[in-house]
Write a structure and sequence with these properties.
By secondary structure, the chain is an alpha/beta fold. Helices cover 42% and strands 12% of the residues.
Length: 367
Amino acid sequence: MAYRVLGRAGPPQPRRARRLLFAFTLSLSCTYLCYSLLCCCDDLGQSRLLGAPRCLRGPSAGGQKLLQKSRPCDLPGPTPSERSAPSAPAAAAPAPRLSGSNHSGSPKLGTKRLPQALIVGVKKGGTRAVLEFIRVHPDVRALGTEPHFFDRNYGRGLDWYRSLMPRTLESQITLEKTPSYFVTQEAPRRIFNMSRDTKLIVVVRNPVTRAISDYTQTLSKKPDIPTFEGLSFRNRTLGLVDVSWNAIRIGMYALHLESWLRYFPLAQIHFVSGERLITDPAGEMGRVQDFLGIKRLITDKHFYFNKTKGFPCLKKTESSLLPRCLGKSKGRTHVQIDPEVIDQLREFYRPYNIKFYETVGQDFRWE
């Protein structure tokens, strides 16, 4: 009996140890599984909030069985390419550029809005210069191209028009220019329907000089067109000017302005002198900034006179290593016109100019 007792008491010792070891191992496995699941749940919760795919932290056996459809998490840490790149704060967004180009990235760069201000005219008056000058201002973001929404693309709708605009912050003004708006009969009503508070900028120039500049541009594209004199008159001997020719008709500013004043008060329209824009760009742009309700930041220090082109250019800025001048299509040498033709056109425009001066309350001294 003693042997049996000893025999039964001796051999069980290894089995009891194995049982204890199994229980201890099972306890550790359960603890590890619970910890893995808790971490995973935390990650899954964050993934749901951030819209990220689900994943597991660790590849525990229990976890793989319970969540076998979830993929393993990518371990944090830089990739080889990231290690070689200079470090930068992940949340840092680039400062909005002043070039007027659209930003389609982070919402932190702003929102696409319908323009609060428009440069509506006139062709060959200096609209591109005003656009390039004003977009230097940090409170203005401008569309670089001409969308022609209110004259050619109105059927596309305001959502399409808005999609073209640059992103702006709440403190910034969205601006676009299309010079043909000023002579489009439907444009004032359409702009008014978009917003009756829209501010309008009209760049005007001596209508005779403007017509010659217009003709010079067309001639560069179509060398076989008739002469300037031939297009300007129905009968030059009788002094009958052909007002159906667009180059002549655009310069009848008083006539076109009537359409705009049916919808917008004069205080909502600012007229820029194309001549003063050349001789005193800072002064003209100062008045534009006042009209837009922004601080006068564009001053004399931004300009220099380019003798080759014959008009002012922007000096280099912190964001640009080179001075910025208008393109090759600007500053062309005008074709030579018979002085008698010029005198006849001055006489034709005189009554329209006088009426325009009286209406806007400014003497542009074109006579």
